[in-house]
Write a structure and sequence with these properties.
single chain, about 240 residues, alpha+beta, 11-stranded antiparallel sheet, 15 strands, globular
């Protein structure tokens, strides 16, 4: 990853059967993530808001503030999010640490539930650190990219989506590379005064295509997340070849 790019958030997702809160299940998560705390929402009359998104009352979470993490259990979906560390550790170290947490957690969840997975995704969020002029030049240039790995662009608005085949274990699956380019703002308190900073972000969502015959075991899930950094670097090198 070039100097003009900075990882700011990781997200790993499983599409699987709903996991309701039980103390036994929470205990198993706590063994993997000491100090984590469950947050239940089963009696809430309104959706709750977490990390800028609304979730229905059936959603519950496990929060680990010291690790800057949250695990969100929704109907048919589990999201594991982590903000990147503030110590600016090398990108490879942060990837290894995150995937090192994702794999045992997801393996435990699938063993506990006895379920398989219909889809899975890795979705890092990346800040573009260069100038606004460079960002504008980059955005304009994207519409001259007709192919990625020999496959044609299938969507081109503010989001670009490519679909290419990749191996998971010994089988080939179609993988979507969804790339969203957006502006945002960050608000931080400095000496009690809110300071606003403009951001240019690239949101990646690299996921197995939603095809009816896809069904992934825990071994396949582990293999997919083993490839997460490689998949991310492949699409970033396409956009930022130098």
């Amino acid at each position: 990853m070039g100097n003009q790019l900075k990882l700011v958030e990781f997200r790993a997702t499983l599409f699987t059967a709903y996991i309701p809160y039980t103390f036994d299940f929470y205990t198993k998560v706590h063994e993997l993530i000491p100090g984590c705390v469950p947050v239940l929402n089963s009696n809430a009359p309104e959706p709750m808001n977490m990390m800028g998104s609304l979730y229905p009352p059936s959603t519950w979470t496990i929060n680990a503030p010291s690790r800057r993490e949250i695990i969100i259990f929704q109907p048919n979906k589990i999201d594991y999010l982590r903000l990147t560390d503030e110590d600016e550790n090398p990108t490879e170290v942060q990837w290894n640490d995150f995937i090192g947490s994702v794999k045992p957690l997801f393996e435990m969840i699938l063993e506990f539930s006895g379920q398989t997975v219909s889809r899975m995704a890795i979705a890092p969020k990346i800040e573009f650190k260069d100038t606004i002029k460079k960002w504008d030049e980059f955005i304009k240039a994207q519409f001259s990219h007709p192919e990625f790995e020999g496959h044609t662009l299938i969507e081109a608005e503010f989001t670009q989506t490519f679909r290419t085949p990749r191996k998971i274990l010994d089988s080939e699956y179609q993988i979507n590379f969804v790339c969203k380019f957006m502006g945002s703002q960050e608000i931080k308190m400095t000496n009690g005064v809110p300071k606003t900073r403009d951001l240019q972000l690239i949101e990646l969502d690299i996921n197995t295509a939603p095809l009816p015959d896809y069904d992934f075991s825990k071994e396949a899930v582990s293999d997919f997340f083993n490839q997460a950094e490689t998949l991310t670097n492949d699409i970033l090198k396409f956009y930022f070849p130098t």
